[in-house]
Amino acid sequence: MQVGIRGADCVVLGVEKKSVLKLQDPRTVRKIAQLDDHVCMAFAGLTADARVLINKARIECQSHRLTVEDPVSVEYITRYIAGVQQANAIGRSSKTVREFLEKNYKESMSDDDSIKLAVRALLEIVQTGAKNIEIAVMGPSRRLKTLDASEVDAVVAVIEQENAAEAAAKAGGSSSALAK
Fold first, then answer.
1. Percent of all residues in the chain with a pLDDT value above 90, rounded to a whole number
2. Closest residue by Cα to residue 138 from 114, 103, 106, 102
3. 130-153 average pLDDT score
4. In what order do the strands lie in the sheet with 2-6?
5. How far is Cα 111 from Cα 13, in angstroms, rounded to an integer?
6. What is the pLDDT of residues 86-107, one digit of tens each?
7. 8-state DSSP, 171
């Protein structure tokens, strides 16, 4: 499952990572790849299939830069990728996450709110919590930054605190309504 959130000054990509095998280094399993200085993509499914598409897209970015002398636009590389491999919202429980985002997305969210929304959306379907979530943030003034596990854990902790406070408020509000 993958999710993309556009904030006021950033784009947040979030993906669900599958559990790594015992002999596999968890740092080598990445579901978010940078195509150019200002373009990155997330994928769901088999890494081998995505690697082929990522390599083709990177070559197209370089070729475009050499021939046009400008970096690719996001629209251009999106059309190129869609021409190579038809793109669509994919992943397990994509409908659930899409409905969650339609309900909770707000225009011009801050970077932190965008990251929280991406993590909340993934937590809707990821049973194992933060350890299988990968988050990357990119903005106009900064390069792609992948959050490490401790940063994702911190966001999940904040979300859990907010959920507990909300549940306590609901419980307090419903018991006072019953008392009246």
1. 41
2. 114
3. 88
4. 2-6, 11-16, 133-139, 142-146
5. 12
6. 675 566 677 888 888 889 999 8
7. H
The structure tokens listed for 79 are: 């059309």
Cβ atoms within 10 Å of 175's Cβ, excluding its own? 9
Residue (of 56, 119, 125) closest to 85 by Cα position: 56
Q: Which residues, in sequence order, are bridge partners of residue 42?
A: 32
Q: How far apart are CA 134 and CA 113, in angstroms?
A: 16
Q: Which residue has tokens 């792609």? A: 144
pLDDT reported for residue 130? 77
Strand partners, 32: 42
The label of the residue with tokens 């429980």 reads: 93
For residue 164, report the phi and psi dihedrals to the nearest 5 degrees. Answer: -65, -40
Count how many Cα atoms sit within 13 Å of the Cα of residue 122 in the half-sphere of its side chain: 29
For the chain, first and last CA: distance in Å? Answer: 46
Distance CA 18, CA 47 (A): 11
Within 13 A of 65's CA, how many CA atoms are on the CB side? 12
